[in-house]
Amino acid sequence: GTFAWPCQRCNGHGMCPTPLTCSCSNNWQGEFCDRCATGFYGAACDTYCDDFITCGGRGTCNSVGQCVMIRSIGAVSDSQTATNEYSALFTVTVSGSYKLAVRYGVCTYSPQSPDACPGAIHISGSPFSLSAFPAGTNAFQSEVYGAGVSDATSGQAATFFIKARDIFGNAKTKGGDAFRVLLAGTKPAKADAIDLGAGLYSVSYLIEIAGLYPVFVRFGDAVVGSNDPNVSPYTVKVWAGPARGETSTTFGLVTTAVAGIDFKW
């Protein structure tokens, strides 16, 4: 195993494998082990709560690790026309398939009940199937990945990919976005983003001069993966390719020599 010892740096919630690093206990995280790990709550981070495991998918964990029932969406009647019609407003931030239950009556939460709202009665057709689709593409949430976004060889094509996501981090399921790609550096070059469908794009480029090239992937005026339109989080290192006779050169005393004497060139 890894040798470590207690230290003040970790706030008593971990060990120090080196004087400047912390290896946190299971319930803690952070550089100084000063925050609860995902799913743990409370001052001692000793309360576990998960929306699906602990709350059975019928509630959410609050700040102290207690299940809070997902409340019914408030419905407001049209009192002026007295048509007995109701309106409801809700927001979905995670794309996917849902069941929308519309009930009337008193809903009493019970941890032991498999019913999310025991006591209330479904209206005709409830629960309804609901499909939530991703919102518009967001530059900061979209991601760039692949070998070609960090390494390339001069004279050889390199490739990386762009995955479009919305402001909530949902992966886009359709293409059609206009991404622009520029490799700045010793010899700037543009590259085209090819739409592969389902929100995925491929980018191929070929650089002939070795060096460092910041990669700017833009969506509109924003840079993918960065809040600053002038800063790119991606830099490609283009390595020199294999030696080639037609591009290699010589220098020095290559036209004259004296018999019996070595010359370097």
Automatic annotation (TrEMBL):
Q: Which residues form the EGF-like domain?
A: 22-33
User: Entry's Pfam families?
Assistant: Filamin
Stored Gene3D superfamilies: Immunoglobulins
Q: PROSITE patterns in the record, alphabetically? A: EGF_1 (PS00022), FILAMIN_REPEAT (PS50194)
Instruction: Tell me which positions the record assigns to the signal sequence.
Output: none
* Annotated SMART domains: IG_FLMN (SM00557)
Q: In which ranges do the Filamin repeats occur?
A: 134-238
InterPro entries in the record: EGF, Filamin/ABP280_repeat-like, Filamin/ABP280_rpt, Ig-like_fold, Ig_E-set, LE_dom
What domain of life is recorded for the organism?
A: Eukaryota
Q: What is the name of this protein?
A: EGF-like domain-containing protein
Source species, please?
Hemiselmis tepida
